[in-house]
Amino acid sequence: MLRSLLTRATAPVVCAGLLWTAAPAHAQDPVRARPVSSDEWADRATGTYRALQDHLYEGPDHHGLYLEHTPRQAADPEHSYLWPFREAAQAAVDMQELPHTGASYRHDAAERFDTAELYFTSGERPGYESYLPSPLGTGGDVYYDDNAVVALTQLDQYEATGDERLLKRAEQVVPVVSRAWDDDTTKACPGGMDWYDSPHNNIRATNVTALSAQLAARLHEHTGNPTYLDKAEEWYGWVYSCMREAPGLYVNDRGDDGSTNETLWTYNSGAMIGTATALYRGTGDAAYLKKAVEDARGSLAYWTEGSRLHDQPAVFNAFYFKDLLDLDAVRPDPAYLKAMSAYADSTYKSNRDPSTGLFRFQPSNGGDYDPTAPAATLNQSAMVQIFATLADATHQRRQPS
């Protein structure tokens, strides 16, 4: 995922960037948020997706890939990195769930999963690389969080279509992320997962471990394979015991030097909620449901205070809200959809360029609208996901039981 967001060397810069937007020109107010209908969310998703395709999608002549930004920046590679591409793939998956028009996006979604394989490298240490390997690119490191989220999207598409190939692809990622587990018992809080596949890695990251646990838990639901359950419980347990600062709030990583990076992100909250929910569904153990609810309530109280949601990267909020709605399907709480709707409505009004349909944020990928900033595949795709998910969720709630 975004190196500028997560690397320890730049964490203070990112935090400073978030502080720049501590008093946004437009602050969300969940209590007063105007209700938005399912049809309106669908229209917003459609327009945002169209802008993504018009301005950032490179088309079949360029292997179905995406640009990193528009306009292209001097430091941009020829095509996007893996993480933004994954978010564009997830956007197409979510568009399939639109009421009335979802079927028209099935071709786009199917194409994304074939294109994603261009980032995959085989060999002794296989995995999806952060950038396209030869012949299309120079390749990149295998980041374990990237691999986990690619597999989670493959599972989403499997659930949407029943295509067994996607389930098998997701299963093939488990050995990749399993390599990340640190078995050095001399370290503080032994366990946890390395961030990327390199001897230079020096952190064990919450995002990798929690997202990999979520992947294993969901695979256990689909396959009944007890190995996946064992991994999910071990990985989830490490994050819960070693990284939990408060209910629903998990610090970012532990360094091999004994230090702790206490930065908080919404998607780390979400991954732990989503994992506990999946473990509850897969085992029937009410203790997992209790933990999911505690983390959901604790995180929501924190993140909805002031401008915190507004300041978080839009893509992290997409993860978080969808995990909340996953829990909502098991243990309903209207606060989850209310918070998501308020954020989405305020961001649509404050961060969208009406002339192009493109969203712009601060360098942190969240916060106030910056008219000088390039639009990014990462952020545009995140907003598609949020609007499409809301269109589906609000449509379901108005259906007769």
How are the SSEs ordered, and which strands pair?
Layout: H1 3-6, H2 11-20, H3 38-55, E1 69-70, H4 82-95, H5 106-116, E2 120-121, E3 127-128, H6 144-161, H7 164-178, E4 203-205, H8 206-223, H9 226-242, E5 244-246, E6 249-255, E7 260-264, H10 266-283, H11 286-303, H12 308-311, H13 314-328, H14 334-351, E8 352-353, E9 358-359, E10 375-376, H15 377-398
Antiparallel strand pairs: 1-10, 2-3, 4-6, 5-6, 6-7, 8-9
Helix pairs in contact: 3-4, 3-15, 4-5, 4-6, 4-15, 6-7, 6-8, 7-8, 8-9, 8-10, 9-10, 10-11, 10-13, 13-14, 13-15, 14-15
Protein described:
- The chain is α+β, with helices and mostly antiparallel strands and 401 residues long.
- The protein contains 15 helices and 10 strands.
- The protein has helices at 3-6, 11-20, 38-55, 82-95, 106-116, 144-161, 164-178, 206-223, 226-242, 266-283, 286-303, 308-311, 314-328, 334-351, 377-398, and strands at residues 69-70, 120-121, 127-128, 203-205, 244-246, 249-255, 260-264, 352-353, 358-359, 375-376.
- The strands form 4 sheets. Strands 4, 5, 6 and 7 form a 4-stranded antiparallel beta sheet that branches.
- Strand 6 and strand 7 (260-264) form a beta hairpin.
- The N and C termini lie far apart (40 Å).
- The relative contact order is 0.15.
- Mean pLDDT is 92; it is low at 2-31.
